Amino acid sequence: MKKILFLMGILISGIHFAQTYYSQDFNTTGLNNWTSVDLDGDTKNWVNENASALSQSFGTGSLKSNMYVGITNDLITSPGINLGTVTASNVALVYDLATSTLTPQLSHNKYSIYVTTSNNSGTITASTPVFTEEVAQGGVQHRSINLSAFIGQNIFISFRHYNSQGLFLVIDNIEVKTLASSDLGLTSVSVPEYGLINTNYPLKATIKNNGFESINTITLNWNDGLNDHISTFSVTPPLTTGNQATITHPVNLNYALAAEKNITVTITQVNGSADSTPSDNVQSTVFRSLSEQSPKKVLIEEGTGTWCGHCPQGHVIMHKMTVDYPENFIGIAVHNSDPMQVSEYNDASAFSAFPIMHADRVDLQKFLTTTQNYINFRKNMLVPARLDASSSLSGNILTFNASATFKTVISNANLRLSAILVEDGVKGTTNSYAQRNYFAGGSLGPMGGYENLPNPVPASQMTYDNVGRMLIGGYTGVAGSIPSSVTDGQVVNYTFTATIPTTFNTSKLKVVLLLLNADTGAVINARSFLLGTLGTSNSETNANYLTLYPNPASEYIKIQSDYKTDLKIYETSGRIVLEKNNVAPDSPVSIEHLAKGTYLVSIKEKDAEPKTQKLIIK
């Protein structure tokens, strides 16, 4: 009886639920009974093409209008859609779109939607569009157009791409349907993956109006498994059909101890009442609080090759990042089709062009000119663990003892450790080490001196740095090197071993240690350790990451560290002969004025206790 009364109440109140009258996702070949007309006569027209690279929601097929030359003008029209039997008070056209342009200056991707009772192209273009817009460059977007005025008619829907100089326009997931009166969807929830203890972090929710009524107020709750945090928001201006907005919950996430929290966010009311379609009202995410911040370095892997005439740009940019971001940057050159290629590394990186780069294996196939942007964006990200290492080098057998000290709680992780052997100062004598150089002569502008070098640059004049020499533990890391559950303060150890080829210069080798997310392939954290600072038989720890090199030295010394250091050099008598403050990591400190002999060097990083090392000047 209660169910019957509830249904009667819905009918009396006029609430209605979604009903679909036409849908098409174009995942079958062809135009699926849509009719394309080439209005500009350039023989280029609407096609069904796989656009899943833009969004997985596009599936295997989408309507796509390409602009090849000049200004496009193409029309595509649906089969007949019968709205004669619709009894609801509203009908809407909903669809997804994506667009792109060759350059920001050519961002005039204009299209119109026509709704007519005739499918004659002349009749269609002579009518008044129900919707017109110029779409900004890039991105997948959703639209909802009110067609209620056409209830009771048999209609044709047309998309006209015209007066455009953009590269393409994609239309997909077309539906004609009645919308529920009140239907608010929770499309995403944004919280940081990691946050420091005793620090406020906002929870942001993106909401979308999938219903017919405008949304004026919503009530949102987030729960961490222990407590509800309920708040009612006024939406200003009101959220109309098909549009979305991002709101910030007034109650921040803030925890006093390192913990893992499963956060569930729920829309509980819309305009003061229950949502008529609550199935899309819930989203979940995970937030982990950290007991302290660990040093974070950004890994940039550059796709390069001696055959690539544009790749000197990569050499210049990687060197500049090393100088400008010594505390934040680790660079590895992944060579392709030249004597320095490591096939496993090259194949796994799967670079699609050269030169190009991956940033932390999250931002993939990016132009090298954007390297600085990605370093600045990612360098301050919080990470769950600090990376350290100790090593021994006995002959050509490397034993690399890696450790990860976790600063949070993770109950079900799929993390792995990996290590990469990297060499600086690589030279060769054969022509295959000569670097193709399109910057020769300066016609492409200055490029760090390459404009003054020939094309190709002879092998005798080339030195290659940051060369990826060997994957130790594989590109995706070693399964089981990190347990699935870790706690705050837990130290996880794993030992890598490798045989170093005798052709490698061990004084210029380093090991880059990676902490990987095996589910996504992302590099969570990275750290490099110089083999030139290690003993030849006994293990020398790098646990405090304050390492003096080269040693012995003659012209300069550097400090491998996470932060700027204070440096004092003492004679054995105890007299200070050199003092430097705020020395940047891996920055040279001249010692040319000091006499040959043995010295003691005190290195102090931040508030840590000073570390003393012996230095031999030869």
Concise account of the structure shown:
By secondary structure, the protein is mainly beta. The protein contains five helices and 39 strands. The protein has four domains: 168 residues, Jelly Rolls, CATH 2.60.120; 106 residues, Sandwich (Immunoglobulin-like), CATH 2.60.40; 244 residues, Immunoglobulins (Immunoglobulin-like, Sandwich); 71 residues, Immunoglobulin-like (Sandwich).
Q: Could you please describe the fold and organization of this structure?
A:
- Helices cover 7% and strands 43% of the residues.
- With 618 residues, the protein is mainly beta.
- The chain has 4 domains: 11-178, Jelly Rolls (Sandwich); 184-289, Immunoglobulins (Immunoglobulin-like); 298-541, Immunoglobulins (Immunoglobulin-like), CATH 2.60.40; 547-617, Immunoglobulin-like, CATH 2.60.40.
- The strands form 9 sheets. Strands 1, 3, 4, 7, 10 and 12 form a 6-stranded antiparallel beta sheet that branches. Strands 2, 5, 6, 8, 9 and 11 form a 6-stranded antiparallel beta sheet that branches.
- A hairpin with a 2-residue loop joins β25 (385-394) and β26.
- The termini are far apart.
- The relative contact order is 0.09.
- The model is unreliable at 1-16, 101-106 and 534-544 (pLDDT under 50).
